[in-house]
Specification:
By secondary structure, this protein is an all-beta fold. The protein contains no helices and nine strands.
């Protein structure tokens, strides 16, 4: 079980909300040192069955925590990611975490995106 969970939510149809960009939602500040465990991406309705997948990025003080940014694949409503940047040891206390929505499908983008970052306290 995670020690800390941060969540971002973007309601509406992704292709109609003009959400593509950096720092698209609220910022979260860590209260301790943490190690990322997983990220869960959820859509209420599936993303595109063709075209581009929805792609996000989470930044720790402006730097991506991923080597490869997570996507929700075509026709899916959930994706769980457990792979992070190979050089990321921990997310330090007082880090500012932000969400980027890098890409949405122009055809069927899905709606009601929720991004959940699960963290464990660092030793």
């Amino acid at each position: 079980m995670s020690d800390r969970v941060f969540t971002w939510h973007e309601p509406g149809v992704m292709s109609e909300t003009n959400v593509v960009g950096t720092n698209t939602k609220e910022q979260h500040t860590t209260d301790k040192d943490y190690v990322p465990e997983r990220v869960i991406l959820r859509l209420k309705t599936p993303g595109a069955t063709d075209g581009a997948a929805l792609t996000i990025d989470i930044n720790d003080d402006g730097v991506s925590i991923f080597d490869v940014n997570p996507t929700i694949g075509q026709g899916l409503t959930e994706m769980i990611v457990t792979s992070f940047k190979s050089t990321l040891v921990q997310i330090n206390k007082d880090s500012v975490l932000t969400l980027d929505i890098d890409q949405v499908s122009g055809t069927t983008a899905g709606n009601d995106l929720t991004v959940q970052l699960d963290l464990a306290e660092a030793d």
